Amino acid sequence: MDVAVKTPWHLWVVGAVSLVWNAFGAVDYVMTKIQNPDYLAAFTPEQQAWFTGFPVWANAGWALGVWGSVIGSLLLLVRSRHAVAAFMVSLAGLAVSCVYQFGMHYGDLMRMFGTFPMIFTAVIWVILIALFLYARKQAAAGVLR
Questions:
Q1: Which of 29, 50, 123, 136 is spaced 20 to 30 Å from 1 by Cα?
Q2: Residue 2, pLDDT score
C-alpha cells in the first residue's frame, strides 16, 4: 500500500513562481515567432533580423527550452514526477540554443546586445538547474507521483 506524502507548502510557491517566470519566456518566444510589430519595436532592425534568422535547429532548441520549462512548472503544480523530464528537456534545449548564440555567433551577439544576453542566460541556467534539482528531489521524496 502506498503511503500518501503530504505536499509541502514550498512546492506551491516554487511551482507558481516558476510558472510566472517561465511565462515571460513563453511570451517572448511567441511574440518573436509571430513577429509582433509592437513587441519587436523595442529592437533595432538588425536585432530583429537576428531573432527571426535563427536556423531550424536553433529554433527547436529555443522552443524546447521555453516550453519544457513551462510544462515542467505546470507538472510541478499537478505533482507529476514528469516535471523532472520536462526540466531535463528544457536544459537540453537551452544548451542547443546557447551553442548557436554563444558558440557560433558570440561576436554578433556582443556587438548587437552587449553583455546582457550572457548575464541573463547565466541567470536562466541557474534557475533552470535549480528547478530540475528541486523537481528531482521532490520526486525522490514521493511528493511528485
A1: 136
A2: 55
